[in-house]
């Protein structure tokens, strides 16, 4: 499903944060938003996920976000925010099952298909041994995988990922990103993510969007955005950009 964002403006508590962002993610494409702290990356993702009021237009497969009822929207778009609120005492299995809410009738019970979907995603994310554990007893990285599991269990065609691997060791980082990429290739999942690790961002995305002070400063294939000049200008850092097998490798160097 194509995501089309036009003239997106967001103000938080009266402070303008996004100043007219245009962005398209084609169906089955992976776009990652990069940019320095405070640039507005999370705000952008939350607005596209319908979690924040905004002006401008966001359409999902041609339908304006605001025209979709909550359940219909949840079947199309799943968002993993940076610090989800966790109901106290909830077991991993029950939390991931919440991802199936858009398919369960109000006051109804989950079906066998819902449970199969949940177990499938727990298996894919190495989370089966944690199924009955309370969420608050998990490590930060284990919990981050559970948040992703809930979003995947939602079965939406568009996945919004805000810093999905920030708490993961490099092994799990690669595993999680490869899984998302496989779902994208096999099921046509559309991915809009934010990431701080520029090399990883470039390795997995078809296109990068560099956000700075609430505006798009550059957009295009990773090699066009991950340049020493653009990164020096927007991150105030000296980097060396080295050609890699799956995109440029960005190495910070002492100035
Ligand atoms: N309620 C608020 N009132 C005013 N400004 C806010 C409010 N909430 C967030 N902001 C500001 O909005 C800006 C964008 O925040 P956002 O979290 O979207 O940035 P980000 O690019 O995701 O940053 P990071 O890389 O640090 O996660 C920040 O400068 C933040 O301080």
Commentary on this structure:
By secondary structure, the chain is an alpha/beta fold. The chain has one domain: 3-Layer(aba) Sandwich (Rossmann fold). Helix content is 33%, strand content 27%. The chain is built from nine helices and twelve strands. The strands form three sheets. A six-stranded mixed beta sheet has the order 6-7-8-3-9-10, sandwiched between helices. A four-stranded antiparallel beta sheet has the order 2-1-4-5, covered by helices on one side. Strand 11 and strand 12 form a beta hairpin. Helix 4 crosses helix 5. The longest helix is centred in the last third of the chain and has 18 residues. The chain is globular and about 55 Å long. The model has no long low-confidence stretch (mean pLDDT 93). The site of adenosine-5'-triphosphate has 12 residues, from strand 2 and helix 1.
Under CATH, the homologous superfamily reads: P-loop containing nucleotide triphosphate hydrolases
Number of helices: 9
Helix content: 25-40%
Using the coordinates shown, work out and report the CATH topology.
Rossmann fold
Q: Which CATH class applies here?
A: Alpha Beta
Question: What spatial form do the alpha-carbon principal axes imply?
Answer: globular
The percent range for strand residues is 25-35%
Strand order of the largest sheet: 6-7-8-3-9-10
Low-confidence stretches: none
| Number of extended strands | 12
Which architecture name does CATH use? 3-Layer(aba) Sandwich
Largest sheet at a glance?
6 strands, mixed
Ligands present: adenosine-5'-triphosphate
Brief characterization of the structure:
This protein is an alpha/beta fold and 255 residues long. The chain has helices at 41-48, 70-76, 92-97, 112-124, 140-153, 170-187, 198-204, 222-225, 228-235; strands spanning 3-12, 15-25, 30-34, 55-60, 63-64, 77-80, 158-162, 190-194, 207-212, 215-220, 239-242, 249-252. A hairpin with a 2-residue loop joins strand 1 (3-12) and strand 2.
């Amino acid at each position: 499903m194509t995501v089309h964002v036009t003239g997106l403006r967001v103000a938080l508590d009266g402070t303008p944060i996004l100043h007219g962002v245009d962005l398209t993610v084609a169906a089955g494409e992976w776009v990652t938003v990069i940019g320095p702290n405070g640039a507005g990356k999370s705000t952008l993702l939350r607005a596209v996920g319908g979690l924040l009021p905004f002006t401008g237009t966001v359409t999902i497969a041609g339908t304006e976000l605001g025209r979709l009822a909550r359940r219909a929207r949840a079947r199309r778009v799943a968002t993993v925010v940076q610090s989800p609120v966790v109901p106290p005492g909830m077991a991993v299995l029950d939390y991931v099952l919440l991802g199936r809410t858009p398919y369960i009738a109000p006051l109804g019970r989950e079906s066998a298909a819902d449970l199969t979907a949940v177990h499938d995603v727990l298996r894919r994310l190495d989370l089966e041994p944690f199924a009955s554990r309370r969420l608050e007893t998990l490590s930060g990285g284990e919990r981050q995988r559970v948040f992703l599991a809930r979003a995947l269990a939602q079965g939406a065609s568009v996945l919004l990922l805000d810093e999905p691997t920030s708490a993961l060791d490099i092994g799990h980082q690669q595993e999680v990103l490869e899984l998302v990429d496989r779902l994208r290739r096999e099921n046509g999942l559309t991915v809009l993510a934010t990431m701080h690790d520029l090399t990883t961002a470039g390795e997995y995305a078809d296109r990068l969007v560099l956000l700075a002070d609430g505006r798009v400063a550059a957009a295009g294939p990773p090699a066009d955005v991950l340049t020493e000049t653009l990164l020096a200008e927007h991150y105030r850092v000296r980097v060396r950009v080295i050609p890699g097998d799956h995109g440029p490798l960005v190495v910070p160097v002492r100035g």
